[in-house]
Every structure is written in structure tokens, then in C-alpha cells.
Design brief:
The structure holds 2 protein chains of 2 kinds. Chain A has 18 helices and 16 strands. The longest helix of chain A is centred in the first third of the chain and has 28 residues, at about 1-30. Chain A is an alpha+beta fold. In chain A, the strands form 7 sheets. In chain A, strands 3-7-8 form a 3-stranded antiparallel β-sheet. Chain A has a 3-stranded antiparallel β-sheet with strand order 5-4-9, with no helix packed on it. Chain A has helices spanning about 1-30, 70-75, 80-90, 215, 240-245, 245-260, 310-315, 335-340, 345-355, 365, 370-380, 390-400, 415-425, 430, 495-500, 515-520, 530-540, 545-555; strands spanning about 60, 110, 130, 140-145, 150-155, 165, 180-185, 200-205, 225-230, 270-275, 275, 405, 435, 460-465, 470-475, 485. Chain A is globular, with a radius of gyration of 28 Å. By secondary structure, chain B is an alpha+beta fold. Chain B has helices at about 1-15, 20-40, 140-170, 195-200, 210-225, 235-245, 245-250, 260-265, 285-290, 295-310, 345-360, 365-380, 390-400, 405-425, 430-455, 465-485, 490-510, 525-550, 555-590, 600-610, 625-650; strands at about 40-50, 55-60, 65-80, 85-100, 105-110, 115-120, 120-130, 135-140, 200-205, 210, 255, 270, 280, 280-285, 320, 330. In chain B, the strands form 5 sheets. In chain B, strands 5-4-3-2-1-8-7-6 form an 8-stranded antiparallel β-sheet, with no helix packed on it. In chain B, strands 9-10 form a two-stranded antiparallel ribbon. The longest helix of chain B is centred in the C-terminal third of the chain and has 36 residues, at about 555-590. The two termini of chain B are about 50 Å apart.
């Protein structure tokens, strides 16, 4: 009898043991080793286009901080401490208090920190439908308010309109009344490739009613024919390398493009006409008016980096003054000062405000006279106390000029290499010029603030920004103001989503392209576009090749 | 007739041993203590703060009762495990102030999670802390506790008497069992491959600094459902995702379940690549996530999020830094650095990973390994926790000490021993049984010892560890059966139980190490859990034994029932001792020895259910072996309910067990 029991137990237990053993045997058999460890799958020799920022300006990370790395040039020149200090100025918010670090925000301002517009140092993110909120990190868009007749900025708002103010002052624009709406667009091909693949195109329109504008609510009669558009920030990394390109080389690029005559819209006559540069950048206010080649911002409104968007933004986004900018950034027509000075609520709170800003009553004109005069004197003063020290400003610019560009990813992939060939073949590489070689890179500062040796330098570097530094026209629906847009450098843009956590690729000047494919197709939206013929060629590629082009653009 | 009955009754009692008799006296004492507690004790809560002296507490019945002393909070602090933010203990310093006419002089007492305070017969224990106020449990029960404790100690003494009496009756049972804790020879050396170096870096993970290898293994297991991918070690896979992202996100790494998800992603197998989850319309799982009941979608979503967080560097907490307030934070390379961080540290945090990435992408693995080694040096300079030796042991343990392999071997060995017991009558079968059981027991001893060393406490603090403990006890039982009683069949059954317990460990998937919760930091944890688990182990053996006879004949049933009954008495005694050691512990931590917590209640029910057959001389039907076997088979359901069911269905204060 005992035997029977033992039999029974054995049968049951054998079954269990078999069940347990089977997966083990299975696991042992399915161990196919057809993938190499991370360090074994790449060659040690990389092509030159892998080093996007050259030897002195390339970083290698693809993590969230891929845009935040100091370039080797920073270490070479012993500028780490400055870079570290500048990094903190960029990352941390400014406050309205006058003492302590990062004080002096206001009286009106656009954002409290740089990171708000440059999430993790990168490009702004696509705005959601509806509101225009600048409190969240990621909205890198500025409101571009302009007169459609002559395409100039309206004079009754600052070129970069402020949506915030320190009490008792009031924000020039009430952002809660600004609305963003996303519209669908259909291109000449019905948003469809010949092989049936489809895509969607969307673009933003912005409405800003009169009652959103402070001076209008106070009685200023604004003209009704203004329009509002969005313009997004781009990444900060690599700007030092673009700054290191010789002016002569940029001029040569203009001359070549004029000679080639491929662009159906020609070149922007405000910059280049009849074989010569017509629009230089010069700073006669702080500098001596020397003329420089324009190279930064979509509108090419800026020349050398030391007096370009970043140097300006740290002052005009926050209205934090410094020794070379001892005045407030306000509207050109002076309407804000005018109507604020008459606003009873501003008048009532002004003395309290002034006690904080000028407790020692150093500025007599702010304390003597009628309250209206005193407010106006304060807002329009040219002798404000510097709120940011020269050391801090220098540190910030060391950091700005010292940010490296992420190396190209996946250069060993056949698909990426195929995409690279096609990128040239179909003509993208004409405007998205792959590479430049930097010049001597002696420091150039139209503002006459920095000295040679203050900044990291990048002499004789072969860099791969994928831009010709020239403006072209795409004739997109609801296009950028004036229609002229500098070819945006493509380097590092493929990392945008990983770095900023954005659900969309956020390409083009107002982040309208949710994928790289959408960005490419916007280039061919109109037959008038300078890139139309390239997009026609792109459309003719088989799907696999189109994907290779996209993979390449995302990899660089 | 009546006289007959009485004689019968007396006769039955006369057969009870003195130890058994005293055991019942002990149970009566425990019951009496409970009654005294019920009728005479006063329990409630008192809130003490730094601002005022509290001298009355809110009783459970709602009445406010006065204390013969006053209480005021002096200080409250949370003590963390070194270098982590995981609480190790909560400590309150309480000032006891004299009330006029009260018996107590002013003094100060210290309460912590496993340390109650006694003031004039009032027992005070920590309950909670909120907004500068500490809530204490008050229990005034001098008589009840004294009587109950007398019962407990008598019960422990009688149990020991009963168990040891049986042990020393047989000369063969005097064999001593030695624990062989095999430790690896730890050679402190720098690793030369990035994977090895990464495995030796510390990463703050699960509230403790863990070896990079542990983290990589854990991550891959979570994402892929297995800790190896195409034969590559987890470190290489996880490093690939960070440093060769564009290639690795195209590998089918993410485990998926359900045809709906396969269709949505356009994949046919059980794994999808990270890139499969994204298309022109954005995140492909998005439409499924609105349905909270869609388990498969939410599981896949969690895996995708884990990969995303891993690849962007935000899980890589590798840089310990003491913040201005003295607390340790573990920074990732992507964190914003504190303004006051010295430049050299800032440089390490800011640039190390970029340097590693440079070496990795330029095909210089030793360079990357040097960077990880340098980070490990930085870690030890900043915060010397998790020493080289501990790190080596952890890596060895995590790589080679899974429970699947010994589980399968134990099951196979169990079957083999049963076959030996059944078919082989040769003399060598016993030595073979001893060798097999001894080897498995040694293996389990090594597992337990390694884990003990790594966790810093006897490993009985969570589900995985208690199951491993059960397997260990069962393996010890197997060796005992083979060596001391020469019972090859018993040894086989024990091995099968060992194997099953190890399988349960594997199913849980959670052998991760985590810091001990404050309330568990008591030596009584091990005693309590070990006794209870030993009881459950015997209950499981009784179940296996009795279940096997359910379909057998009468004779076999009787023989099996006798075997089960031999195990029943120690099972009940171990359970009883385990439960009452728990009660003593509860009295020290929670301020009361019994609280009708679901786990407590079900353990008591289990013990009572198993007590019943011990009294079968008064319960005629249980004298029938077949009925007894059915009873003992069904009784095991109560063990399952206590061990697993309570956690799933009822919760309570034993939720960590």
C-alpha cells in the first residue's frame, strides 16, 4: 500500500519538476547571441561629420543633459568656474528683490528664468490649443506683434512683449486673453505621398484682443490692424561655434548663392543686394558703430554673439540691468511709461516700490516732483543701478559661448548613411549647408564689453551645423513675419524630445511640425518655396529612402 | 454509564503528559490575562506637543481619562539609514512631569519604534507624528500583562520541554547540524570592462545605495521580464540604452502581452522595440490608457516610461552630495547642481558621463571603465557606504544566487529521493540521501548567509525572505530526516517542499534588497518569523503527506495519518510560540500584545484548527485515519489564508509580511 502512495506522489512530483525544468531548457536553447555589447558594435574611427562641434566643441551624451555640456574649449582655457557660475544664472529663477543673487527682476518682464524658454537648454515646445501661458517651463514662444502693412513691429509694445510685472506696475499684455488656435493645412499633394502614406500639417494662429493690451485699457488708441504670431526659441548650444565662423566665409556664401541663382525668391535685399552686403549689424549705443555681418536669430537681427540674442535676452527678458544696460526694456513709443504714470493704482503703490528699489534715495528725480513725473522718470531712466555685476554677466557669456554640440548619433547605421547621401542628392544640403570651418576666432564684441581671453575660443574647427547662415523663404501658411527666415541649424535637434520630454518634435519657427516628416513637407507647402523642388524630389523617393532621410536628420 | 464516562474522561486526562498538562495551564493563564485586560485595562491615545503639558488621554470608549503625570514633547527626529532618505527609526524624547500628589518624579523618556516607555504602570508607545505633535498610544494594564506574560513564558517552557523530549529520545537525533556560510573571496580590484565597472558603481535605488549590477538586473527584469537579453549581461544592455541609445531603442526589449497591443504596435512576438511605441500620431498606447482596467496596456506603459527615464539619465543617482542642511542627496548627472557645490565636485557630476559617452562611442571601453571606476572612487570619498566587499558580495549574490535553479534541483532531488525510497533497497541510498540533502541545505545556508550579510539583518523581513526561510527550514528538515532518522521518503518530501517554496520566491520576482522598515528593526523579528515559518513548514509537510493518502487504502491511510500526527505536535507548538513571541514584540512596538489584526487572528485560527486533531481522543470521528487525513489536508487552507490570503484580501498591520 505504501508503495502505491509513493507511486502517486512520484507521479505528481515528477510532473511539477518537469514543468519547472522545461522553461529552463527553453531558456538555455533560446540564448542566441546575435547582438554585440554596446562597446563592440562601433568602430573606433569616426567620420569627421560625427564631430558636430569639431574637436573643441563636441559633447557625447544623449541623456537629458545632452545640450548642457561644457565644450572641451572651456576646460582648455581654464574657464570651468565661470562656466559653472553662468550655468546657475541660466538655470535658476530671477527674483524681484534687490539684494542677493539673481535679483532685480522687473518692473515688467517676459519670463523669470532662461530655462522657461529653453527647456534643458533646448528649443521651445509646441504650445497647446487655447491659452498662452508663460509660467510653465517649455513655452519658448514670444508674441510677435507687428503691422501687416509694412511688417514692422508695433511701437506700442516692446518687440518682445512682456506678460508680467512687479506690483504696482501692470503687465503690458494680459496673457490670459491671448489665444492660440491650431488649424489644419493641406498642401498641393493633399498631404499624401504617391505610395499612399499620409501626413498632417497644422499651423497656429494667435488672437490678442485690444483689452489684453494694458495701454489700450488705459485709453491709448491703438491701431486695429496689428497681427500676432509666434516665434520660438532655438537651442543655445553651438552658438559659440557659429560665432567663430569668419565673416569673409559668410559673405562668400551669400556671393555663391547669388551667383548660383537657385533660389526663386533670391536673397533678402535688406541683407544682400547686387553682389554686396547691404544690412550689417552695428551697435552705436554702447559700441562704436562698427559694422558686422549678421548671423543670429530668424530675422538675422543680430551680429556677433557677444552682442547677440543671449547677451540681449539676459537683460530684456528679465529687465535686470547691468553696467552697459542701465535702462529698462520697454515699448519704443513710450506708451507704457506714459499710461503707467497716470494709472492711480500704480501711483498709489509707487512709493512702496521705490523704497525697495532705491532705499537710499540716490536718484533725486524719482523722489521729487509730481508722482506722474516721478514714475515716468523712473521707468525711462538711463542711470538705473546695475542689478547684475560685470562678473556675473561675463560668467553667463562664458557659459553661453562654452556650450558644446552633441555628436552625431548612429553614424555607423547604414540607414543614416543612406539618408546622408539622399540629403545631399535631393538638394537639402544646399541651404542646410553641412559644414563650415571656423576662422581664427578672435573675440569680436560690438558692445565693447569683453576682452580677448575672457571667452572660450574655437579656432580652425570643422563644424557641422547644417545651415548656410542665410535667409530664405518657404511661403508657409501663416508664415514667419516678413517671410524671410535664416536657415535653422539642424545639429542636435534630433535630441529635442529626449532632452525636453516633449511629446512632439517641435520643429520650425513656431514649433508647428510635430514630426521631422511634417517639417520637411512644410518646406514644400507652396510652389513658391525656395525648397519646393527638393521636396518634390523627396516625394519621389521610396518610403524606405524617405525614412532614411528622416533618420539622418534626427541623427545629426 | 455516567461513572463509566467519568472514568473514561479521567483516564484520558491521566494519559496527558505533565508537560502537556502545564501547556494547557499556560493557555488558561493567557486566556485569564486576556480577560483581565478586557475588564480592567484602559487604552487610548494622547497627543503631546512642545507647547503644553498633556495629562489626560482620550480612551477608546470616548471618555477622557486623567494620567497621574504630565507629558511634554522635547524632541522628535527621524533617523535615516546612513546615506539614504529611508527612515531607520523614529525617536521621540518625552518629558514626564510630576503632577502634585502624583507618584512620579520628573524625568525624561525616549520612545522609538521598538521601544515603549513605562511610567507608573502606563505603557506609552509611538503612534504618529504630524505638524509638531506626536500621538502616543497609552495602555494601562499592569495585571493583564503580568498574567498574560506568565502564560507566555510557561507556554514557551512547556513547548521546549515537549519538543526536546522527543529529540533526545532517539540517539540518532543527537546529530549536530552545522551551518556552512560560504563567503566569496573578495578581491578588491578595478574593473576593466564598462559593464563590470558599471556593476561596481553604486546607484541609489529603492531607498538604498545598490550595486550598479543589481540596478541593471532589476531594470532589465522589469522591462524585459528576464535579466538577460540575447545572452548579454544586464549591465551591457542597460549601458547600451544610455550610451548607444539610437541602436538599442530599436531592439525588441519591451515585454508586451495581449493581441490588442501587438496589433496596435504592429509586432507579432512577445517583445517590442521602444521605437514601436511611437508613430506619426504620437504615443501609440495613449488611446488604451484611458481604460484603467487595461492591465496589459498599463504594464507596457510602465515599461516604456522606465526605459525613457533610464535613457534620459534621470534614474542614474550616482553622486552622493551632502546638502546644506546636512542631509544626503544622490544627484543624477542630469540634475541641476546645487549653487554651493565646490568646483571639483561640480566637474565630476557635470562631465563624468559625457567622458564615459566619449569613450564608449569612440570604441574605447577601458576608458569608459576608468570613468566608472573614478565615479566609484568619488562615491567612497564622499559617503563610504556599501564597502568594496559588500559590493562584491552583492554582485555575486545578484548574479549567481537566484532561487530558480536550487528550486528546480530541490524538486528533482525530491523526486529522486522518493524513487530511491520506493524502488531501491540498497544500503547506499541513505548516504546518497544525506549527501543530496546536505548539499542543498548548504546551498540554502549560503543564500541565507549572503543575504543576511547584504541586508544587515536576518533575512526574514519580506515575502521573498520568509519564503526563502521556509525553504531553508524545509531543507534542514530534509537533512535531519536523512541523517538522523534515516527516513529517505521524509527527506524527499522535505526536498519537494524546499523546491516549491523556492519556486514561490521566484514567482514573486522580488529579491531586491531594501532597507528595513523601522518597526521591523527588532531581534524578535527573526524569532517570531522563524518559529511561525517552521510551523507552516511542518503544516505543509503534513499537507503533502496526508494529501498523498487521500486516495489510498485504509492501511496506507492509517500509516500516513500516524506520520502526520507525529509532525502535528511540533507544528502546533512552533506556531503557538511564534504567535506569542509576536505578541510580546507587539507589546514592545505597538503597546499592546493582542490587537485582533487580521494576520494575528488568522494565525490564531490556524493554530486552533491544527490543535483539534491533538485532542482527537475526545473527538471520535478524527480517530478515523481517512477523516483525519481529509481534515489535515483541508486544514492547510487556513495556512494559505494566513500567509497569502490576508495580504491580498484583508491587509492590516502585517502588510509587509
Amino acid at each position: 500500500m505504501n508503495d502505491k502512495i509513493a507511486d502517486m506522489i512520484e507521479r505528481k512530483v515528477l510532473k511539477i519538476a518537469l514543468w519547472c525544468a522545461l522553461p529552463l531548457i527553453g531558456a538555455a536553447c533560446s540564448d542566441e547571441n546575435n547582438i554585440t555589447p554596446p562597446q563592440g558594435g562601433v568602430t573606433s574611427e569616426k567620420p569627421d561629420w560625427y564631430y558636430a562641434g569639431g574637436e573643441l566643441g563636441t559633447s557625447f551624451l544623449t541623456t537629458q543633459n545632452a545640450y548642457e555640456q561644457p565644450a572641451p574649449a572651456v576646460e582648455n582655457q581654464g574657464l570651468y568656474q565661470s562656466f559653472k557660475n553662468g550655468e546657475a544664472l541660466f538655470e535658476k529663477p530671477f527674483m524681484a528683490n534687490q539684494e542677493g543673487v539673481r535679483g532685480g527682476l522687473g518692473p515688467v518682464y517676459i519670463r523669470t528664468s532662461c530655462q522657461h524658454c529653453h527647456p534643458n537648454y533646448g528649443h521651445g515646445q509646441k504650445l497647446p490649443e487655447g491659452s498662452f501661458s508663460t509660467n510653465a517651463i517649455g513655452n519658448g514662444c514670444l508674441l510677435v506683434v507687428y503691422n501687416p502693412a509694412d511688417e514692422s513691429y508695433v511701437p506700442w509694445l516692446a518687440g518682445m512683449p512682456q506678460g508680467h510685472a512687479v506690483a504696482p506696475f501692470k503687465a503690458p499684455v494680459d496673457e490670459s486673453k491671448v489665444k492660440v488656435h491650431w488649424n489644419n493645412a493641406t498642401d498641393t499633394w493633399g498631404n499624401r505621398f504617391d505610395d499612399g502614406e499620409t501626413y498632417q500639417l497644422v499651423y497656429p494662429t494667435v488672437t490678442m484682443p485690444e483689452d489684453a493690451i494694458y495701454v489700450a485699457t488705459q485709453g491709448y488708441n491703438i491701431p486695429t490692424d496689428y497681427e500676432v504670431k509666434l516665434e520660438s526659441t532655438i537651442g543655445i548650444y553651438g552658438t559659440g561655434l557659429l560665432d567663430a565662423i569668419d565673416e569673409a566665409d559668410i559673405i562668400a556664401q551669400y556671393a555663391r548663392e547669388e551667383k548660383d541663382g537657385y533660389m526663386k525668391n533670391g536673397l533678402n535685399p535688406a541683407i544682400w543686394k547686387g553682389g554686396a552686403m547691404t544690412g550689417f549689424y552695428a551697435n552705436s549705443l554702447q559700441g562704436d558703430g562698427t559694422k558686422y555681418v549678421r548671423r543670429f536669430t530668424y530675422a538675422l537681427s543680430r551680429g556677433p554673439l557677444m552682442d547677440a540674442a543671449g547677451a540681449n535676452a539676459i537683460w530684456n527678458i528679465t529687465n535686470v540691468t547691468r553696467s552697459d544696460r542701465r535702462y529698462h526694456y520697454l515699448d519704443a513709443a513710450g506708451t507704457y511709461a506714459e499710461y503707467s504714470s497716470k494709472d492711480p493704482e500704480v501711483q498709489a503703490g509707487f512709493d512702496n516700490y521705490l523704497m525697495r528699489v532705491d532705499p537710499q534715495r540716490k536718484h533725486a528725480s524719482w523722489w521729487n516732483g509730481t508722482v506722474e513725473e516721478r514714475i515716468k522718470n523712473y521707468l525711462l531712466a538711463k542711470d538705473l543701478d546695475p542689478e547684475m555685476s560685470d562678473r556675473e554677466y561675463t560668467d553667463l557669456m562664458v557659459w553661453h559661448r562654452g556650450l558644446a554640440v552633441p555628436a552625431v548619433r548612429d553614424v555607423d547605421s547604414e540607414e543614416v548613411q543612406r539618408g546622408r547621401e539622399l540629403f545631399s542628392e535631393i538638394g537639402c544640403a544646399y541651404c542646410h549647408r553641412p559644414s563650415w570651418t571656423t576662422g581664427e576666432d578672435h573675440l569680436v564684441d560690438p558692445n565693447r564689453f569683453f576682452k580677448e581671453g575672457d571667452m572660450p575660443r574655437y579656432p580652425h574647427q570643422k563644424i557641422w551645423p547644417y545651415t548656410d547662415m542665410v535667409q530664405h523663404k518657404l511661403h508657409m501658411e501663416s508664415d514667419i513675419r516678413t517671410g524671410w527666415c535664416r536657415t535653422t541649424p539642424l545639429w542636435g535637434r534630433g535630441l529635442h524630445q529626449r532632452v525636453t520630454g516633449s511629446p512632439t518634435a517641435d520643429r520650425l519657427h513656431d514649433n508647428r511640425a510635430r514630426t521631422t516628416l511634417e517639417a520637411i513637407m512644410w518646406h514644400g507647402y507652396s510652389p513658391m518655396s525656395d525648397a519646393f523642388e527638393s521636396v518634390v524630389k523627396f516625394r519621389k523617393l521610396p518610403k524606405k529612402d524617405r525614412e532614411a532621410v528622416i533618420r539622418f536628420v534626427d541623427a545629426i | 454509564m455516567n461513572r463509566n464516562l467519568n472514568a473514561n474522561f479521567i483516564d484520558r486526562w491521566a494519559r496527558v503528559s505533565p508537560a502537556g498538562f502545564l501547556l494547557h495551564v499556560a493557555l488558561l493563564l493567557i486566556l485569564a490575562g486576556a480577560l483581565i485586560t478586557f475588564f480592567t485595562s484602559a487604552r487610548g491615545l494622547i497627543t503631546v506637543s512642545e507647547d503644553a503639558v498633556a495629562s489626560s488621554f482620550a480612551g477608546e470608549e470616548g471618555a477622557v481619562r486623567a494620567l497621574p503625570f504630565g507629558l511634554r514633547l522635547q524632541d522628535f527626529k527621524t533617523i535615516c539609514h546612513e546615506g539614504t532618505s529611508a527612515p531607520a527609526d523614529y525617536v521621540a524624547e518625552i518629558e514626564v512631569t510630576a503632577v502634585s500628589g502624583g507618584p512620579s518624579p520628573a524625568r525624561s523618556i525616549r520612545l522609538s519604534m521598538n521601544h515603549v516607555g513605562d511610567v507608573d504602570g502606563y505603557r506609552l508607545c509611538l503612534k504618529s507624528f504630524k505638524g509638531g505633535e506626536v500621538t502616543l498610544g497609552v495602555n494601562h494594564d499592569p495585571a493583564g500583562i503580568a498574567v498574560t506574560y506568565a502564560g507566555y513564558y510557561l507556554l514557551f517552557a512547556c513547548s521546549a520541554w515537549l519538543l526536546l523530549r522527543r529529540c533526545f529520545m532517539h540517539p540518532g537525533r543527537r546529530a549536530a547540524l552545522t551551518v556552512c556560510a560560504a563567503m566569496t573571496a573578495c578581491v578588491s580590484s578595478y574593473a576593466e570592462t564598462p559593464g563590470e565597472a558599471f556593476a561596481r558603481m553604486r546607484i541609489y535605488w529603492g531607498d538604498r545605495p545598490a550595486a550598479g549590477g543589481t540596478v541593471a538586473r532589476d531594470m532589465l527584469a522589469r522591462i524585459h521580464g528576464s535579466d538577460s537579453y540575447k545572452g548579454l549581461p544586464p549591465e551591457d544592455v542597460m549601458l547600451g540604452l544610455v550610451f548607444d541609445y539610437d541602436r538599442w531603442i530599436r531592439e525588441p526589449l519591451v515585454k508586451i502581452k495581449g493581441d490588442e497591443i501587438r496589433r496596435l504596435l504592429g509586432v507579432s512576438g512577445n517583445y517590442a522595440a521602444y521605437t514601436d511605441f511611437f508613430g506619426p500620431g504620437g504615443y501609440r498606447l495613449e488611446p488604451l490608457l484611458a481604460d484603467l482596467a487595461n492591465r496589459d496596456a498599463h504594464d507596457a506603459d510602465e515599461r516604456v516610461r522606465l526605459i525613457s527615464a533610464w535613457c534620459d539619465g534621470s534614474l542614474m543617482k550616482v553622486f552622493p552630495y551632502r546638502a546644506a542642511n546636512g542631509e544626503w542627496v544622490w544627484l543624477t548627472p542630469v540634475d541641476s547642481k546645487p549653487s554651493k557645490m565646490p568646483l571639483d565636485k561640480w566637474k565630476t557630476v557635470s562631465t563624468s558621463f559625457n567622458e564615459a559617452a566619449r569613450h564608449m562611442s569612440l570604441g574605447n571601453p577601458p576608458g569608459a571603465a576608468r570613468v566608472f571606476n573614478a565615479i566609484a572612487d568619488y562615491q567612497m570619498r564622499e559617503l563610504p557606504v556599501l564597502s568594496e566587499r559588500e559590493l562584491e558580495v552583492e554582485i555575486f549574490y545578484m548574479r549567481g544566487c537566484g532561487t530558480l535553479m536550487p528550486g528546480v534541483i530541490a524538486l528533482v532531488a525530491g523526486v529522486a529521493l522518493l524513487i530511491l525510497a520506493r524502488y531501491v533497497r540498497m544500503a547506499w541510498r541513505r548516504p546518497v540521501a544525506v549527501v543530496i540533502t546536505a548539499l542543498l541545505f548548504a546551498w540554502l545556508c549560503a543564500l541565507v548567509a549572503l543575504r543576511w550579510y547584504l541586508a544587515g539583518h536576518f533575512p526574514l523581513s519580506n515575502g521573498f525572505e520568509t519564503m526563502q526561510g521556509l525553504a531553508w527550514i524545509a531543507a534542514a528538515g530534509g537533512l535531519w530526516a536523512a541523517a538522523a532518522t534515516k527516513n529517505v521518503r521524509g527527506a524527499g518530501l522535505c526536498m519537494i517542499l524546499t523546491g516549491l517554496a523556492l519556486m514561490v520566491c521566484t514567482m514573486g520576482g522580488g529579491n531586491s534588497l531594501s532597507p528595513l522598515m523601522p518597526v521591523l528593526a527588532s531581534p524578535l523579528l527573526s524569532v517570531h518569523v522563524l518559529l511561525v515559518m517552521a510551523g507552516y513548514c511542518l503544516a505543509a509537510l503534513i499537507f503533502l503527506n496526508s494529501f498523498s493518502a487521500l486516495f489510498a487504502g485504509k492501511e496506507a491511510s492509517a500509516s500516513v495519518a500516524r506520520g502526520s500526527m507525529r509532525l502535528l505536535e511540533p507544528a502546533v507548538l512552533l506556531l503557538a510560540c511564534g504567535i506569542f513571541v509576536g505578541a510580546i514584540w507587539a507589546n514592545m512596538s505597538w503597546g499592546r500584545y493582542w490587537g485582533w489584526d487580521p494576520k494575528e487572528t488568522w494565525a490564531l485560527i490556524t493554530m486552533l484548527i491544527y490543535c483539534v486533531p491533538l485532542h482527537r481522543r475526545w473527538l471520535r470521528p478524527l480517530c478515523n485515519p481517512r477523516i483525519l487525513n481529509i481534515y489535515l489536508t483541508l486544514a492547510f487552507l487556513s495556512v494559505l489564508m494566513t500567509y497569502f490570503g490576508v495580504n491580498f484580501f484583508l491587509g492590516g498591520m502585517h502588510s509587509y509580511a
